[in-house]
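Apologies for my clumsy wording, but can you show me some protein sequence, whichever is easiest, together with the matching C-alpha cells, please?
=====
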Amino acid sequence: MGLAVCHFKKLRQTGLVVIASLVLVACGSGGGGSNSNSNSSSSSSAAFSQRSGPGTLITPPTTTGNSVPIVIDGGPSANAINTPYVSVTVCPPGTSGVTAACQTIDHVSLDTGSYGLRLLNSQLYSNLNLPVVANGGGQAIGECTPFGAGTTWGSVLRADIYLGGEVATSVPIQDIGDMPGGNGTVPADCSNTGTIADDQTSLGTNGILGVGLFVNDCDTCLTAIIPATYYTCTSQSCVNSLVTQSQVVKNPVALFSQDNNGTLITLPAAPTAGLTGSAPGTLIFGIGTQLNNALNGATVYPADANGNMQTTFNSVVMSGSFIDSGSNGLFFDDASMNMCPDVTWAYCPAVSPTVLSATMAGWSGAPSAVVNFSIVNLDNLANSVVAANVGGTGSPSQFDWGLPFFFGRPVFTAISGKGTPGGVGPYWAF
C-alpha cells in the first residue's frame, strides 16, 4: 500500500536530552513545554528569511468563532492515512486589525502530541516577510526538533497566527528547511538524531500545528544548553545555545486572548472497513469557555510533567503512554500480532478484526477506564484514508493512543497551568 506512518510525539525535555523512542518511518513533529509566560529579553528581527518564491498574499482574516474545520484525506503526498489537517494563516507581526500581507497554508497536520507551529519553507512565499528571531547580537536562532519519525531543522521566525476567529500575536514558529543565518549545513549533532525531514515527501504534510499539553516546546532550553535543540547561527556556523521566553517556539493556542486553556477535537465515527476520499472534523479552542467546548461530564485524566499517562495492556503497566492526534494508528507492543508484509510498521492480525482491550488511567493510576478497541489487517483496507482500527508496533513502555482513538469520541487536551472547569492542566478528558 505504500502508506507512511505518522508519529508526531516528541518526548518532553525536562533536564536530559531525550529523543522519542518510537523510531518508525516517514512523517513527524512535536516539542515540549510548560505554562511559563515571563519574558526575559526581546529578540532581534533585523533580517528576513529567503523562501521559495513570491506569491499572491491576502489580508488578515476577519472570521469569527473559536473553531476551525479538520479534514482527513490523503494529504499532499496522496498516500496518508488517518492524518488530520487544518489550514493556518500567518502574517507578519503586528497585523491584527490592520491591512497586511498574509498567507494561508493548507494541509497542516494537527498534532496534540507537540507544541508550536512548524511550516515547510517550500510552502511559504518569499514576499511574506516573516522576521527572523535573533539574539541580542543579531545572530539568527535555529532549531533542531528530533521526532520518532524524523528530524526537522530550520530557522525560527515570528508570526501572527490566525485560526478561525482566534489570533496569537508575535509567536515564534519553526521554518522547516530554511537555513538560519544563511548557514547551508545542518549541524552534525542535529543530523545525527535522524533523517532530516524538510519537504513534503519526507514530512508528509505542509507543516505541523502542535496544540498539545504544554506552552513551550523546550522549557529546559531557557536555562540550559541542550544539544541538538536550539542554536545561534551565522553564515559560518551554528552553535548550541540558550533561548529566552520570547524566542522559544510556542503553542499558539496558549497565546490566544481567550479560549486559551486547551482544545477539543471532534471527529465522526469511522467504519471498520475504512473510508476512501475524506472525512470532516472540528478543532474547537478552549475548554469550558463557550457553549461548544463544555466538558459535559467527560472524565479528566491528568498527565505528568512529561505529558504522559498510564495504560495497562496484557498485564503490563506502560507509564509513558499518551493520546496523540499526530499518530495515525494505535501503537503498542504485542509480540503475538502478525506484522504486515508490505507495510512494515503495521499490524496485520490473522483474525481481522482482532478485538482487544486496555485500561487507561491518569499518570498516578487514577481515574481509570477500560477501553475496548480492535485492529484490522491493513491489507484489507484498500485505498482507505480513514480507518478506525489501524495499529502498529510500539515501545514496551508506551501505548500511543493515536487518531483512531479520536473517531466518534470528543477528546479534550488541557494546557499545563491553565485553569478549566475540570481542574488545572495538563490533562486529557473524554
